[in-house]
């Protein structure tokens, strides 16, 4: 077995292409985990370095475990202060590819391209587009107008693009006016070190004891939702589902906003529990010990949480919308319209009654498609066909 440091040395001496991954979210977030998965997927074919754009908001627990770090007080001040350090990193590392993890980092695309001009070899910029929600969903919001104008606008200047789903590709090509030849769908991987353990499913007693250990007592089961409080996430339907099934605990991982708090108080939802954020390993334990993962989003660019739950052996139910339908049609129950709380509740009833609600062969096929091996092949193929 070749250790990573030895592999990196071998790649260096054999003049293998270098890739710089740029991410502004910590390793506990979906974007941070995706960045680490990309590193793992590429390290057999490229010499990989990660540049973390670190701010107190997105790195509350300190620096990441690997990679180089550029710090700023916030993403707003980083709009200016990230530029010079990034140029220096690019000139020192001399990457063949600079890979941006999300469109909100588009403001750094021309910065990277300018830094690359001073190198003795060509350098290719790639943007991973996950959705176009910030650009299209909130046309009246000053915040998102400014985000689009200052941060996202230069996304289109990247040399090529990769997408997490065909749905996202279609939406992005329409919004950014991109040509189809400029991008490839690579999907999203599941972090196998977290969610592909292959253990037996938790028993009913183990689930009860797990709930009890987290202060969730005297309920017949537990539903889980992992999301931000955004209109497209349709959290109100999850809360209405809790009202319809008061004997089941409804756990949400995400910030408890004042809006959600007021809905909980108004409906007297004493069966709703909130956890602000988890490490990946803690999230895995909630996936494993809940009875049903509920994901009622109106719009998703990919929708990884219900697939992560499936990887942990837990059934999920989602809205039959956007990329959720693309990934989960024929795999898990899908609800249309997305805000039909009673339909989700009926799936929960079936699960608690011991019924299997997912198509197991389709689940296995989906998990194989989201495996690191399959993801690595798609990513490497996409980068190799780029003009680098």
Describe this structure in words.
The chain has helices at residues 4-13, 30-42, 75-81, 83-93, 109-117, 133-136, 142-152, 166-176, 192-195, 204-213, 235-244, 258-267, 280-289, 304-311, 322-328, 341-352, 360-369, 372-385, and strands spanning 18-23, 47-54, 68-71, 97-100, 124-129, 160-163, 183-185, 222-226, 249-253, 272-275, 292-295, 316-319, 334-335. The protein has 388 residues and is of the alpha/beta class. A 7-stranded parallel beta sheet has the order 3-2-1-4-5-6-7, sandwiched between helices. Helix 4 crosses helix 5. The model has no long low-confidence stretch (mean pLDDT 90).
How are the elements arranged and paired?
Blueprint: H1 4-13, E1 18-23, H2 30-42, E2 47-54, E3 68-71, H3 75-81, H4 83-93, E4 97-100, H5 109-117, E5 124-129, H6 133-136, H7 142-152, E6 160-163, H8 166-176, E7 183-185, H9 192-195, H10 204-213, E8 222-226, H11 235-244, E9 249-253, H12 258-267, E10 272-275, H13 280-289, E11 292-295, H14 304-311, E12 316-319, H15 322-328, E13 334-335, H16 341-352, H17 360-369, H18 372-385
Parallel strand pairs: 1-2, 1-4, 2-3, 4-5, 5-6, 6-7, 8-9, 8-11, 9-10, 11-12, 12-13
Number of strands: 13
Determine the structural class based on helices, strands and strand pairing.
alpha/beta
User: pLDDT under 50 segments (min length 5)?
Assistant: none
Strand residue content: 15-25%
Task: Give average pLDDT, whole number.
Answer: 90
Helix amount? 40-55%
Whole-Å distance between the termini? 30 Å
Radius of gyration: 21 Å
Give the overall shape, derived from the CA principal axes. globular
Largest sheet: 7 strands, parallel
**In what order do the strands lie side by side in the largest sheet?**
3-2-1-4-5-6-7
Put simply, the count of helices is 18
């Amino acid at each position: 077995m070749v250790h990573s440091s030895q592999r990196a040395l071998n790649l260096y001496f054999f003049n293998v292409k270098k890739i710089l991954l740029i991410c502004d979210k910590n390793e506990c977030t979906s974007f941070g985990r995706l960045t680490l998965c990309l590193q793992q997927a590429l390290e057999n074919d490229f010499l990989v370095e990660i540049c973390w754009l670190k701010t107190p908001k997105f790195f509350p627990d300190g620096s990441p475990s690997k990679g180089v770090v550029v710090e700023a007080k916030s993403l707003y001040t980083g709009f200016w202060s990230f530029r010079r350090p990034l140029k220096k990193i690019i000139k020192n590392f001399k990457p063949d590819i600079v890979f941006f993890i999300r469109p909100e980092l588009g403001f750094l695309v021309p910065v990277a391209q300018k830094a690359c001009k001073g190198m003795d070899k060509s350098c290719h910029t790639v943007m991973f587009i996950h959705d176009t929600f910030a650009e299209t969903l909130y046309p009246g919001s000053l915040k998102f107008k400014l985000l689009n104008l200052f941060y996202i606008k230069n996304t289109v200047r990247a040399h090529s693009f990769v997408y997490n789903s065909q749905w996202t590709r279609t939406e992005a090509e329409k919004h950014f006016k991109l040509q189809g030849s400029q991008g490839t769908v690579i999907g999203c991987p599941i972090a196998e070190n977290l969610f592909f353990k292959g253990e037996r499913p938790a028993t009913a007693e183990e689930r009860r004891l797990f709930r009890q250990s987290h202060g969730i007592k005297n309920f017949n089961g537990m539903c889980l939702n992992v999301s931000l409080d955004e209109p497209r996430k349709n959290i109100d339907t999850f809360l209405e589902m809790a009202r319809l099934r008061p004997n089941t605990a409804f756990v949400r991982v995400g910030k408890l906003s004042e809006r959600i708090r007021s809905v909980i108080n108004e409906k007297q939802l004493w069966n709703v529990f909130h956890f602000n954020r988890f490490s990946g390993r803690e999230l895995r334990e909630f996936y494993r010990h809940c009875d049903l993962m509920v994901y009622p989003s109106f719009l998703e660019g990919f929708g990884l949480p219900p697939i992560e739950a499936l990887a942990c052996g837990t059934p999920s139910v989602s809205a039959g919308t956007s990329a959720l339908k693309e990934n989960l049609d024929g795999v898990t129950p899908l609800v249309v319209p997305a805000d039909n709380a009673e339909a989700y509740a009926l799936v929960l009833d079936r699960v608690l009654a011991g019924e299997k609600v997912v198509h197991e062969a389709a689940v296995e096929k989906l998990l194989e498609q989201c495996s690191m091996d399959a993801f690595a092949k798609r990513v490497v193929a996409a980068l190799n066909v780029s003009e680098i």
